[in-house]
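Severity: low
Component: inverse-folding endpoint
Summary: output formatting inconsistent between runs
Steps to reproduce: submit the following structure tokens with default settings.
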């Protein structure tokens, strides 16, 4: 009889131990997730996913994340719709709003960059004001891309007809800035990284700081196909939680963020990256709350309608799947 009691006790302990292992995320197999980013090479304001990787925030949530850099929103959107990516973590807001209005079954689940942290810069000899850009060339990633729409929105808000400017497809933010330096185009939309270097290029000046002209305008959304969200809601939640924690780390810990930034953006000096960080409030640049107001969304949608890129925008509550952000904010509070 004693042996039978001992045997049953041993089985009970083994069962409990196995149950604990199964409940422990560290003991479970990580869920693989392939995330796309439209900036290649990345700029400072889109580094939250890289911070989440470096600090083990994805791993803490039981995720094995791969970041795939795809130059340009159009190519990125095609890859997402084709199922080559599980989600798009950094993709231009205007591009995906247009795609969704045309029937693409995609939804936003996080807003990693709720403002547009850019400047409109130009060669001093070409223009010293936004009005001076009339008849001049502006370098963009592609017609219809985010870097195409933003200068147009800034010009219109400033009383300048955006159709009186020539738009030239150049490529990535780094390519566009080099084109202005080389005199191939007169102006472009520059990242904070590039603006931080303007002292090295006295021939280039900043004409406008985008968020001061149009504070309503969001930059990037995190998107996924409706089918993927429906099948993997817990994965989307975990991504949202990890990325929100990363953004809050960036906003609260400049030194720690800089240590990661210099690893990711290897071709830029620590001094320039530090200056770029200081050019804007990181709590506004990075999605510390991961959301966007309905008014800001509608402002952008109305502009895209007015210029003919969109006929019937997807309503805010149908475009932005807020339940994951709401859950994270309930857990962490607003910052």
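Observed output (run 2 of 3):
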């Amino acid at each position: 009889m004693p042996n039978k009691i001992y045997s049953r006790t041993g089985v009970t302990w083994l069962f409990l131990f196995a149950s604990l292992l199964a409940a422990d995320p560290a003991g479970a197999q990580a869920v693989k997730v392939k995330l796309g980013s439209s900036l290649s090479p990345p700029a400072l304001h889109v580094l939250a996913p890289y911070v989440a990787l470096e600090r083990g925030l994805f791993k803490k949530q039981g995720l094995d994340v791969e970041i795939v850099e795809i130059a340009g929103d159009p190519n990125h959107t095609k890859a997402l719709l084709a199922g080559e990516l599980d989600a798009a973590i950094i993709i231009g807001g205007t591009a995906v709003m247009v795609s969704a209005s045309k029937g693409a079954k995609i939804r936003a689940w996080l807003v990693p960059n709720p403002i547009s942290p850019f400047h409109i810069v130009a060669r001093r000899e070409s223009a010293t004001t936004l009005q001076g850009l009339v008849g001049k060339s502006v370098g963009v990633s592609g017609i219809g891309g985010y870097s195409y729409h933003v200068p147009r929105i800034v010009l219109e808000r400033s009383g300048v007809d955006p159709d009186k400017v020539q738009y030239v497809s150049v490529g990535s933010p780094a390519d566009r800035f080099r084109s202005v330096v080389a005199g191939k185009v007169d102006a472009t939309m520059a990242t904070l990284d590039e603006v931080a270097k303007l002292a090295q290029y006295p021939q280039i000046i900043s004409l406008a700081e985008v968020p001061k002209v149009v504070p309503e305008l969001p930059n990037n959304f995190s998107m996924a196909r409706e089918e993927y969200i429906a099948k993997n809601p817990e994965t989307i939640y975990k991504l949202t939680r990890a990325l929100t924690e990363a953004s809050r780390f960036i906003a609260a810990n400049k030194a720690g963020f800089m240590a990661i930034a210099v690893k990711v953006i290897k071709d830029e000096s620590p001094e320039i990256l530090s200056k770029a960080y200081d050019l804007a409030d990181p709590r506004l640049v990075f999605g510390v709350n991961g959301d966007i107001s309905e008014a800001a969304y509608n402002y952008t949608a109305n502009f895209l309608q007015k210029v003919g890129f969109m006929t019937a925008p997807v309503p805010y509550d149908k475009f932005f799947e807020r339940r994951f952000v709401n859950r994270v904010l309930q857990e962490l509070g607003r910052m």
